[in-house]
Design a protein that fits this description.
Strand content: over 45%
Helix content: 10-25%
Radius of gyration: 27 Å
Shape: elongated
Order of helices and strands: HHHHHHHEEEEEEEEEEEEEEEE
Distance between the termini: 35 Å
Number of helices: 7
Structural class: alpha+beta
Largest sheet: 14 strands, antiparallel, barrel
Length: 438
C-alpha cells in the first residue's frame, strides 16, 4: 500500500507474495476510492461468512488485511493477534502488528514488534525475507526518529522542558481509615492533584529535574479528615545503554483536618534495565518523618522501603509484578516508658497488575495486592503484638478524550484482617474523573 506519509509503501503487497493467499491487494494511491471500499467490504463479508464454516489461518489473515485496507485498525489488529500462535503465520503476524502500531502513531511499539523478528525472539522459524524487511523497517523508524530529533533540536534548542500533570476525581469511600488504622465511617470525597515539572536538557544541568506538586482529598461531610500534601522534588537521571539510574530528594509538608500533620524528607535511589519487551527495576527509599503537631508525635521516626519490579509487554498488554519490603522505626505511643500502641510495622507486599489496551481509546488495569504487616512492639493497650493481612483488588478503565487527556473510572475492594478486632475492616472505594498532562 503506497502512502507518501508512511513507511508502509508496498509492504502488504510484499507480504501477500510471501505466502500464497487468495486475496490480492489492489494497487492504491494516497486514498481509497469508493469503488475500492465497496470491493473490500464485499470481500470482507465473503471471508467472514466463510470463516463460520471453515476457520483457517489463511482466512483469518485475509480478514486482517481487509480490515486494514478499510482503515479499521483495531479490528485488523485483533485478527493478526490471533495468528501469533500459528507457526506458519507467527512472524508475519508480528510484522503486520508492527505496521499497525506505526499506523496508529506508536513508533516505539512498532520498533518493538520488528525487533522481535530481527532478534529471532520466537520458537517458530522466521523466513529470511521477513527478517530483512524487519531490519529495514527498524532502520527507517530510527533514522526518521533521529532526524526529527535533530530538526527539533535546531529549531527549539531550549535549556529545559516543562510538563504539567493534573487529575480530579469524585468518589465514595464506605470506610474511612484514620492515621491510627481505625475505621471511621463512609463519605464522598473530591480527590485532586496538580504538578509542574522542569527537566533540564543542556549541560551543566542536563538530566536534572525539579517537580512541585499538590495533592488533596477533601471529604463532603467529614472535613476533620481532609488530607493535603505539598511536595517539592529534585532528581538526576543517569543513562547508559539499556540502563537508567536515578537519584532523588523530596520534601513533603502535610495537613490532616485543620491541623498541621507531618513534614517528610525522602531520599530515593532507583535503577532500571529495559531490553525489548522486558523490564527490571529496583528502588530504595528512606523517609525521615517529623510531626508538625504534638498530637501526632507518636508517628515520628523513619521508614525504609525496597521495591523490586518486573514488567513484560505483549502486543497490546503488559504484566507487572512488584515486591515491596518496608520497615518503620517510629516513636510509638508510650505511657511511663511503656508502649501503649505500636505504629512501627514491618511490611511485605506482593502485587500483580495486568494492563490491557482494549481499543485505540480504551485501556484497562486489573491489580491484585497482598500485604502482611507485623508491628515491632508489644501493645499493652491490646495485650498483643499487632498483625495484619491486607488484600486489595482494584479495577480501572481509562478512555482517551483527546491527546493526553483521559476519562478515568476505578474501583477497589480491600479486606484487612487483624488479630486486634478494631483494626479489621472491609472497604470499597470508587472514583470517576479526568486526568491529563500538557
Amino acid at each position: 500500500m503506497r502512502n507518501k506519509n508512511t513507511i508502509l509503501s508496498g509492504i502488504f503487497l510484499c507480504l501477500l507474495s510471501v505466502i500464497d493467499l487468495t486475496f490480492v491487494a489492489a494497487a492504491s494511491a494516497n486514498t481509497v476510492s469508493i469503488t475500492e471500499q465497496l470491493g473490500y467490504k464485499k470481500q470482507l463479508a465473503h471471508y467472514l461468512k466463510t470463516q463460520q464454516k471453515n476457520n483457517t489461518p489463511r482466512i483469518t489473515y485475509n480478514i486482517g488485511v481487509l480490515y486494514y485496507k478499510l482503515k479499521q485498525y483495531s479490528e485488523s489488529r485483533t485478527y493478526f493477534t490471533k495468528l501469533l500462535k500459528v507457526e506458519n503465520y507467527h512472524a508475519l503476524a508480528q510484522y503486520n502488528l508492527g505496521l499497525l502500531a506505526y499506523k496508529s502513531g506508536d513508533k516505539k511499539q512498532a520498533i518493538s514488534w520488528f525487533e522481535r523478528i530481527s532478534e529471532h525472539q520466537t520458537k517458530y522459524k522466521t523466513p529470511e525475507k521477513l527478517l530483512q524487511l524487519a531490519t529495514v523497517q527498524i532502520k527507517k523508524l530510527r533514522t526518521k526518529k533521529a532526524t526529527k530529533k535533530t530538526i527539533k533540536k535546531k529549531t527549539k534548542d531550549k535549556l529545559f522542558k516543562i510538563n504539567s500533570y493534573v487529575f480530579a476525581y469524585y468518589g465514595h469511600d464506605d470506610n474511612l481509615i484514620d492515621p491510627n488504622g481505625n475505621v471511621i465511617t463512609g463519605d464522598n470525597f473530591l480527590n485532586t492533584y496538580a504538578s509542574v515539572a522542569m527537566k533540564f536538557k543542556k549541560p551543566p544541568l542536563k538530566d536534572f529535574s525539579w517537580r512541585f506538586g499538590f495533592y488533596s482529598k477533601d471529604h463532603v461531610n467529614l472535613g476533620g479528615y481532609d488530607y493535603r500534601v505539598i511536595s517539592s522534588e529534585i532528581g538526576k537521571k543517569f543513562y547508559r545503554d539499556n540502563w537508567r539510574h536515578g537519584l532523588g530528594f523530596r520534601l513533603d509538608s502535610s495537613t490532616y483536618g485543620v491541623t498541621d500533620y507531618q513534614s517528610t524528607a525522602r531520599i530515593e535511589l532507583n535503577t532500571r534495565y529495559k531490553k525489548s519487551s522486558n523490564q527490571l527495576a529496583a528502588r530504595y527509599r528512606y523517609y525521615d518523618i517529623q510531626s508538625e503537631d504534638p498530637l501526632y508525635d507518636a508517628y515520628e521516626g523513619s521508614r525504609q522501603l525496597v521495591s523490586l519490579r518486573y514488567e513484560k509487554k505483549f502486543s497490546a498488554q503488559k504484566i507487572r509484578l512488584t515486591l515491596d519490603f518496608e520497615t518503620n522505626d517510629r516513636a510509638d505511643l508510650r505511657t511511663a516508658g511503656i508502649v501503649t500502641t505500636s505504629y512501627s510495622a514491618a511490611r511485605d507486599t506482593v502485587a500483580l497488575s495486568w494492563f490491557s489496551k482494549l481499543s485505540d481509546r480504551w485501556k484497562m488495569r486489573l491489580s491484585l495486592k497482598s500485604r502482611d504487616s507485623l508491628y515491632n512492639d508489644f501493645s499493652t493497650a491490646d495485650n498483643a503484638r499487632r498483625k495484619e493481612e491486607l488484600k486489595t483488588t482494584s479495577l480501572q478503565f481509562k478512555y482517551n478524550l483527546k491527546k493526553r487527556w483521559w476519562f478515568v473510572a476505578d474501583y477497589s475492594y480491600s479486606d484487612n484482617q487483624s488479630n486486634i478486632d478494631r483494626y479489621s475492616y472491609s472497604r470499597n472505594v470508587s472514583r470517576v474523573g479526568i486526568s491529563g498532562s500538557f
